[in-house]
Amino acid sequence: MTVTDGAAAGNERQDRAELRKKLLGAWQLVSYIATSADGEVIHPLGPTPNGLIIYTPQGYMSAQLGRGDHPLMRSARLEDATTDELAQAAIGYVAYGGPFEVVDAATVEHHVTTSLFPNWIGRPQVRKVSLAGPLLKLSTATPTRLWGAQRTAELTWSRLA
Question: How confident is the model over 64-73, as pLDDT tens digits?
Answer without folding.
Answer: 999 999 888 8
